[in-house]
């Protein structure tokens, strides 16, 4: 198994100022992009952001921390950078594992946003499969079935790992083989960890902290039920396999200047404006959790 670069310094994509200082970090000042790319944007604007990011990121770095879950679509260029770097030394396909309370494979008409990026990664020819695990959100339930992109599910490139969600609609549309349903997140986590140990391959791991129960850490999205110990076991199961990783799901307060972002985030039930005292308390918990996650990822490398 090829070795990873995860013992290198963590890098903070500082778009919203939410990520606290980490030992040995590299911090990229990107806050002037916040309104432009937060939640989502058109592909031309995203291409300009990607070019600015590429100009600042070193060729090798450790875990990338991206701030709020509103920026989870930044995983897309990070994964493509990982693919490009590996192409120089290995032609092996890349597996992507996403721990998230949402599928991030939802229809979006204006380019890419934090809930639509997975489709683009899953259909990349150098990606063998994407596993989105920890979903307890109704985003994959019957009421929202029409919002999910079906192409990567039908193509066998994407799997949803969920607990407590009625996904019977998938059978009627012929995509039930892409769904792994469990009675509990604990059972889901054990099964996923076992699969990752038994089917070792180069893997990119993306963690959105809204996958965790609120007693673990607080985010500004609806949250799942995963425990810290379950996530740490999943990371441990990937020991020696991780070739890139990122963390999102930090919390920051922001009022969108763009009308459709205000409208869509409100429709998603997102809390974007948080009181100063509450925000400070949540960020303390977030920072301590980031330190533990980064340390565990470095150990798994």
TrEMBL record:
GO terms for molecular function: hydrolase activity, acting on carbon-nitrogen (but not peptide) bonds, in linear amidines; metal ion binding. InterPro entries: Ureohydrolase, Ureohydrolase_dom_sf. This is Arginase family protein.
């Amino acid at each position: 198994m090829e070795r990873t670069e995860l013992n290198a310094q963590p890098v903070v994509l500082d778009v919203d100022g939410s990520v606290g200082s980490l030992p040995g970090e590299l911090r990229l000042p990107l806050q002037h992009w916040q309104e432009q790319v937060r939640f989502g944007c058109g592909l031309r604007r995203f291409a300009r952001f990607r070019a600015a990011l590429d100009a600042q990121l070193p060729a090798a770095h450790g875990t990338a921390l991206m701030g709020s879950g509103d920026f989870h679509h930044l995983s897309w260029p990070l994964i493509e950078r990982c693919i490009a770097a590996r192409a120089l030394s290995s032609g092996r396909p890349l597996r992507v594992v996403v721990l998230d309370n949402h599928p991030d494979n939802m229809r979006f008409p204006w380019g890419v946003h934090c809930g639509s990026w997975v489709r683009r990664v899953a259909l990349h020819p150098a990606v063998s499969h994407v596993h989105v695990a920890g979903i307890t959100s109704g985003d994959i339930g019957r009421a929202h079935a029409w919002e999910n992109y079906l192409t990567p599910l039908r193509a066998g490139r994407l799997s949803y790992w969920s607990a407590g969600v009625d996904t019977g609609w998938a059978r009627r549309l012929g995509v039930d083989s892409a769904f792994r349903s469990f009675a509990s997140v604990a059972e889901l986590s054990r099964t996923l960890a076992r699969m990752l140990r038994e089917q070792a391959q180069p893997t990119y791991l993306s963690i959105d902290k809204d996958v965790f129960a609120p007693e673990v850490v607080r985010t500004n999205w609806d949250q799942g039920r995963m425990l810290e110990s379950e996530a740490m076991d999943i990371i441990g199961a990937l020991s020696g396999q991780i070739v890139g990783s990122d963390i999102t799901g930090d919390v920051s307060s922001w009022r969108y200047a763009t009308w459709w972002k205000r409208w869509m985030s409100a429709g998603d039930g997102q809390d974007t404006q948080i009181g100063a005292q509450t925000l400070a308390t949540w960020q303390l918990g977030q920072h301590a959790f980031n330190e533990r996650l980064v340390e565990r990822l470095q150990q798994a490398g």
